[in-house]
Amino acid sequence: MKHLVKLGVVCLARTTFDYKAAEKLYENITENLKKTENAEIIAIPGLVIEPEDAHAAALKLAGNDIDGLVIISGTFHLGHLALELEKILHKPILLWGLPELEYNGGKIRLNSVCGVNLNASNLYKSGVRNYHVNVGSSIDNDWVDALRIAAALRNAHIGLLGYRAKGFFNLGVYDLNVYSKMGLLIDHYELTEVWNREVPEEALSARLRQLKEIFETDELSNEQIIRVAELSVKLNSFMDDNKLSAAAIRCWPEFAAEFGISPCAAMSVLQSEGRIIACEGDIEGAISMLAHSAAGAETPYLFDFSQVDFSEDSALLWHCGVAPCNLWDGRCSRSLSTYFAGGKGVTADFVLKDGNISVVRFDSAGTEYRIFITTGKVIPMEKELKGTYMKTRFEKPVKDVLQTVVDNGIAHHASVVYGDFIRPFEIFAKIMKWKIIR
């Protein structure tokens, strides 16, 4: 489900135009907005015509803690109005222009688009650049989804379990920079806080049955299967009890050495159930996955940009075995194996399903954030490797994609989902004044 978003809505007008028609259009728009998925609509009744009306509307919306402000130019209007609203609210703005009505006696009736132009110019020249423009009879849902991303991150609570993986300096973050840029809080926990949790017998039995229904487990010992089931229960309850929106785990080397298995297989199962869990202590990977989920993408996961084939123009998006098990291609065997960490790896092994994909990485360089985005199409392949993987052809030649990644120092993990989830991130980046790398 998409993340909840709260939208304030106003309609501006001037009585020298057909404000009665604009008022009727506004009533219809507010009724339709109420049908927006997982959105709370706080609409100011009637038209905002005078600066005093705009000031009163802003004060009312300020008390509702909105995520974004929809300013509809019902007709052309005074330039004061949008500025009075922004002066108090300081929220991302959608400037919405309505299609012109049929002329009535040779007179333009709404002149709505000119009102949008006026507002955009006033805001821009006053230094306010977090606005987006929409002209049409319905709201731009990509803008709404961009607000969902911001709201999800602002309200998120991420747990760092252990630390980043050894040597992965590029995955480290400065916690207060993350808070400054996104309002997101990170808490640190020791791995033992997960390992030492109690496991109710009923929950363990349910997870054991689940593992044997999903995976072929012939390669594992009974003790390893039990360990995967135990860890699934422990991680799940740990995230519940600590109210974590997402977790980033130092998954090696301590897990295999001290707990007895790596967490990959348990992560595969939990991610298929909607948990956001990042490998190798990758906080920004977890943030990328949260952002995908907020926009409505299902079961995001992190991959390594692992192999490239310039002649075939493809890349292998691989990881050691953590992809959500519900993304299996339905053709190959879906198994658990112990191919690394001296037989203690315990990873999921399968090829991911076909389809169109979107990729995103929230990535910091110093104190600045940028967003890497791209799209691609999965190429069917046989199961040839351990781990979880897909072969992909990108929107641009793979050589260019790789060059873009390395030239900009983008980290070696990114979040991938099925479907088209690009435009909301472009709008989000504009709102945040972040660079898009594509």
TrEMBL record:
<keyword id="KW-0119">Carbohydrate metabolism</keyword>
<dbReference type="InterPro" id="IPR004216">
    <property type="entry name" value="Fuc/Ara_isomerase_C"/>
</dbReference>
<dbReference type="InterPro" id="IPR009015">
    <property type="entry name" value="Fucose_isomerase_N/cen_sf"/>
</dbReference>
<protein>
    <submittedName>
        <fullName>Fucose isomerase</fullName>
    </submittedName>
</protein>
<keyword id="KW-0413">Isomerase</keyword>
<dbReference type="GO" id="GO:0016861">
    <property type="term" value="F:intramolecular oxidoreductase activity, interconverting aldoses and ketoses"/>
</dbReference>
<dbReference type="GO" id="GO:0005996">
    <property type="term" value="P:monosaccharide metabolic process"/>
</dbReference>
<dbReference type="GO" id="GO:0005737">
    <property type="term" value="C:cytoplasm"/>
</dbReference>
